[in-house]
Structures
1.
Amino acid sequence: AQSVAQPEDQVNVAEGNPLTVKCTYSVSGNPYLFWYVQYPNRGLQFLLKYITGDNLVKGSYGFEAEFNKSQTSFHLKKPSALVSDSALYFCAVRDIGGFKTIFGAGTRLFVKA
Amino acid sequence: EPEVTQTPSHQVTQMGQEVILRCVPISNHLYFYWYRQILGQKVEFLVSFYNNEISEKSEIFDDQFSVERPDGSNFTLKIRSTKLEDSAMYFCASSGGSNSNQPQHFGDGTRLSIL
C-alpha cells in the first residue's frame, strides 16, 4: 500500500536561512510525487511535482525538491526562507496511472523574522 | 487565474440529515476529486470522477456518499445520512490533461459541522 511520511510536525527557520521539509514515501512501483502548500482557511496549492527525469525539480515561489530513489525521499527545499513561506506543507504520492492521491500528515513551517 | 469554487463555505447540519456540498471545477478540466480533512489531521482522498463515472474511491467513500455532475459545470458530493464523524473540511479538486501526473487544483473547502 502507498504511504507518505513527513517526520516533522513543525520546522522552524530564520528568515534568509535555507529550509528543508522532509518527506519519505512507500509505493509498489514508480510514483508521481507532489508538494502542496496550505495557508489558513484556504485549499491546497500546488508547488511542484516529480514525474521522471532530473532528480531536482523546481517549482513555484523559489521552492525545489530533490527526488532520491534509493532513500525513497522527496524533500522540499528553499535556499532562502521568507516570513511569507510560513504555512502548512503537504507531500503527496500517486501511482502512475492512478487517481488516488495519498497525502502526508503535513509539516507546519514557521519562518521567523 | 481560473479557480475551483466551493459552496457553502460552512454548512451546519443535524445528525441523520442529508447534505450536499457543491463545487464548480475549472471549466476545461476533466478529472474531479473530493477530499476531506478532519481538524488537525491529514488530507484524505475520498473519490475521483472522470467521464461521468467514479474512477477510483477510498474505503471511506461508502454507501452513504455519492457524487454527481448534474450539469456541465457543477460537481456535487452528497452524504445521505450524516454522522458526527463526518464533521470535517471537504475539499473539491480538479485537474486537466489526459493522465494522472497533472497537479490538482483545490477549492477553499466547505467546513461541515454535524450537530
2.
Amino acid sequence: DVKVTQSSRYLVKRTGEKVFLECVQDMDHENMFWYRQDPGLGLRLIYFSYDVKMKEKGDIPEGYSVSREKKERFSLILESASTNQTSMYLCASRSPSGGAGETQYFGPGTRLLVL
Amino acid sequence: SQQGEEDPQALSIQEGENATMNCSYKTSINNLQWYRQNSGRGLVHLILIRSNEREKHSGRLRVTLDTSKKSSSLLITASRAADTASYFCATDAILAQKLVFGQGTRLTINP
C-alpha cells in the first residue's frame, strides 16, 4: 500500500528558529512536492523535486529551502521561521509515468505554529 | 495564479441527497483530478479524467469534463455522513509540469 509519512503532525517553533520538516515515501517515486495550505488560499506549491539532488521552485519558495539527498526523502527547511509561516504543510509524491500530472499521494500533513 | 476555481465554496446537504461541486479552469489541460481531504488530514486522490474524456464513474462518484467551457463537475450520489470533507480539483495544464489546486469545496452531510 502506498505510504507517505511526515515527521511530525504538530510542531511549535519560535520566530528565528531553523525548522526541518521531513517527508518519506515508500513507493520509489521520483517526484516529490511540498505544499502549504492556508484557509481561503488552497494549496500552494513551495518546492518540488524530480529526482535525487534536483529541486525546482514552486509558486512561493521565499523563506524556504529543500533537500533531496535520497530518493525516498524530501526535506523542507525554514531557514529562519517567521509567524507568517504558520500553516499546514503537506508533502506529496508522484509516479513520473504518464506525464507531470498523474496522481499525487499525500502525507498526513504537519501543522506548524510559529510563535 | 490559481488554475482551478471551485464552486460553491461550501455546501451543506442532508444524508442521502446528491452533492454537486464545480471546477472551472483557465488554460488547456492534459487531465483534471479530484481529491478529498478530511479535516486536518492529507489529500486523497479520488478520480482522474483526461482531456479526451467527457465522463467518468467510480462507485458513487461521477465526474464530467467540458473542455470547451473549461469546467468540470463532481457528483456524489446518495451522500453519507462519512462524505463530509473538503473536495479539491487539480489541473494538469499543458506545459505546466505540475498540478495546480483549486481552493476547494467544503461539503457537510447532515445526518
